[in-house]
Write a structure and sequence with these properties.
Keywords: DNA recombination, DNA-binding, Transposition
Protein name: DDE domain-containing protein
Strand content: 15-25%
Function: Involved in the transposition of the insertion sequence.
GO biological process, one term: DNA recombination
Organism: Ruegeria meonggei
Structural class: alpha+beta
Radius of gyration: 18 Å
Strand order of the largest sheet: 3-2-1-4
Distance between the termini: 5 Å
């Protein structure tokens, strides 16, 4: 359960603002104006703090509650600029395009790929097959996970903010794809993840 203790605004207002930001391509200043038109006067920096504080926790709840995906996985990574430096967003989807997992990493190397594959296996179980690009880091990470399992059996100002925001965006995509509770209002699903 996510705590909203000590916040100046009601939980529903905070969740609406966070959901609106991660689901639609609006800036914090535009969202500040939209909220103002609805009678809620909140500064764009406060909106940024809300997204950073709550979207990561909501994404973690969504990751654990999503419906099972197909056993054929596709994994890739893309580059995102944070504080002028490139970082890597690892993403995995099943053959139907449903989100399996995602992770922002400062490096594209064996430990990062290994950590990502371990996270995916923890929540999604064993796949039938994984399709990856020819990157050495992904191949090494996949081999490290295989050994471990068989032996015992665009621009952000901070990495934290980028990680939380991207987690919220991926969660909004999962909701849109019907991976949590199909047929229920998307915002209601998002709010339920906050507890």
């Amino acid at each position: 359960m996510i705590s909203f203790k000590g916040t100046q605004y009601p939980k529903d207002v905070i969740l609406f603002a966070v959901f609106f930001y991660v689901r639609y391509g609006v800036s914090y200043r535009d969202l500040e104006e939209i909220m103002g038109e609805r009678g809620v006067f909140v500064d764009h920096t406060t909106l940024n703090r809300w997204v950073t504080r709550y979207s990561g926790a909501i994404a973690e709840a969504a990751r654990r509650r999503k419906v099972p995906c197909d056993c054929s996985w596709r994994m890739d990574e893309t580059y995102i600029k944070v504080k002028g430096a490139w970082v890597y967003l690892y993403r995995a989807v099943d053959k139907h395009g449903k989100t399996l997992d995602f992770m922002l990493s400062e490096r594209r190397n064996k430990p990062a790929a290994t950590k990502f594959f371990a996270r995916m296996l923890e929540v999604n179980g064993l796949p039938r097959k994984i399709v990856i690009d020819k990157s050495g880091a992904n191949t090494a990470g996949l081999k490290a996970i295989n050994k471990r399992r068989t032996r015992p059996m665009l621009g952000f100002k901070s990495f934290n903010s980028a990680s939380a925001t991207l987690a919220g965006i991926e969660t909004a995509h999962m909701i849109r794809k019907g991976q949590l509770t199909p047929g229920v209002c998307p915002f209601k699903q998002f709010a339920e993840l906050a507890g």
